[in-house]
């Protein structure tokens, strides 16, 4: 998809990966609406982007993805300011195994809510222009990360939900593609979550295991995942695809077909 003049929404866009994705979109000539719950860093990121890309290219909306009203209002404000929406990246996420309901509310319900709002605005049947939705899952959406089971569950949920919605969009003729990105560990604020007892909860005693898994898989920089995001957002052939981003590069996941599953269950 050519990005020049397109309008994008990035949740959790004030820092970390979301900020990196927003920067890719801006570099390609898109306008970006950053949705984030932290007002200070949202304003600081908008100011930095205004300096680099010009004052009318970035919008910041205070938005907690667990709030239906704030989320709806932020979409509305984006349409009023930029005249429509073409790309939505549901990226906001946390790790908190103690307050696990909050983790589910942000990582899974927030992605579902953001996807439904995005489809409502993008879908051709509603007068939208079509477009693409990219949901940020994780390697923990493809396999179990034993140090954070609820986080793992939310990311598996994002993968299943996005794949099902991609099929629904295809069958329904929405003109909207839905894909996901599954990175391994990335050097952002989120990475140290499990070093804190209040975040790791009952799994704090497994922090050495976490360290070993991190050593085994390695750690990426934000720019590595931003490069993968760029590849995915530009590729108009993908729907229901998951881009697995690891230290060796990015590859699309080959999900087992129904035949594969039936074949395996006979063995
Ligand atoms: N850092 C990593 O190792 C990996 C991260 N991910 C995923 O990438 C996404 C982004 O994470 P990072 O950039 O690493 O984390 P981060 O902590 O650096 O950034 C997350 C952003 O989301 C915002 N946010 C948190 N709760 C929110 C809410 N309720 N409403 C709106 N915004 C909210 C934060 O204010 C922050 O700006 C998450 O979904 C995470 O699960 C996936 C794989 C690896
Ligand atoms: C501290 C958590 C930080 C970020 C979370 C983020 O989403 C990154 C996740 C990155 C890696 C996920 C790894 C998943 C691993 C698996 O799928 C397992 O199959 C392998 C798990 C353990 C291997 C342990 C062993 O070697 O015995």
Using brief descriptors, characterize the structure shown.
globular, eight-stranded mixed beta sheet, Rossmann fold, single chain, alpha/beta, two-stranded parallel sheet, binds the ligand CC/C=C\C[C@H](O)/C=C/C=C\C=C\C=C\C(=O)[C@@H](O)C/C=C\CCC(=O)O, 267 residues, 9 helices
Can you characterise this structure?
It is a single chain. The protein has helices spanning 16-27, 39-53, 68-82, 100-122, 149-172, 197-200, 207-217, 222-234, 258-266; strands spanning 7-11, 31-36, 58-62, 87-90, 131-136, 176-183, 185-186, 219-220, 242-246, 249-252. Strand 4 (87-90), helix 4 and strand 5 (131-136) form a beta-alpha-beta unit. The chain is globular and about 50 Å long. The chain has a single domain, classed as NAD(P)-binding Rossmann-like Domain (Rossmann fold). The protein contains nine helices and ten strands. The mean pLDDT is 97. Helices cover 47% and strands 18% of the residues. Strands 3-2-1-4-5-6-9-10 form an eight-stranded mixed beta sheet, sandwiched between helices. It has a two-stranded parallel ribbon with strand order 7-8. The chain is α/β, with parallel strands linked by helices. The chain binds 1,4-dihydronicotinamide adenine dinucleotide and ligand LF5ATMIK. The site of ligand LF5ATMIK has 16 residues, from helix 7. Its EC number is 1.1.1.141, 1.1.1.232. One of its GO terms (biological process) is prostaglandin metabolic process. This is 15-hydroxyprostaglandin dehydrogenase [NAD(+)]. One of its GO terms (molecular function) is 15-hydroxyicosatetraenoate dehydrogenase activity. InterPro entries: NAD(P)-bd_dom_sf (IPR036291), Sc_DH/Rdtase_CS (IPR020904), SDR_fam (IPR002347).
């Amino acid at each position: 998809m050519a990005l020049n003049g397109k309008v994008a929404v990035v949740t959790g866009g004030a820092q970390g990966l979301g900020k990196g994705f927003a920067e890719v979109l801006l570099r390609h000539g898109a306008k970006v609406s950053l949705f984030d719950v932290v007002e200070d860093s949202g304003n600081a990121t908008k100011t930095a982007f205004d300096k680099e890309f010009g004052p009318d290219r970035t919008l910041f909306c205070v938005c907690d993805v667990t709030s239906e009203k704030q989320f709806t209002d932020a979409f509305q404000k984006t349409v009023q300011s930029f005249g429509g929406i073409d790309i939505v990246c549901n990226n906001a996420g946390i790790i908190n195994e103690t307050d696990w309901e909050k983790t589910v509310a942000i990582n899974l319900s927030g992605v579902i809510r953001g996807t439904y709002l995005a489809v409502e605005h993008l879908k051709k049947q509603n007068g939208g222009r079509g477009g693409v939705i990219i949901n940020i899952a994780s390697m923990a959406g493809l396999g179990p990360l034993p140090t954070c089971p609820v986080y793992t569950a939310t990311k598996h949920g994002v993968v299943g939900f996005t794949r099902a919605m991609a099929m629904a969009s295809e069958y329904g003729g929405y003109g909207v593609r839905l894909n996901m990105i599954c990175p391994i560990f990335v050097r952002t604020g989120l990475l140290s979550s499990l070093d804190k007892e209040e975040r790791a909860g009952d799994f704090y005693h497994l922090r050495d295991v976490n360290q070993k898994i991190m050593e085994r898989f390695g750690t990426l920089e934000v720019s590595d995942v931003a490069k993968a995001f760029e590849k995915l957002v530009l590729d108009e052939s993908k729907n229901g695809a998951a881009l697995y981003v690891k230290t060796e590069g990015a590859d699309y996941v080959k999900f087992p077909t129904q035949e594969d599953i039936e074949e395996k269950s006979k063995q």
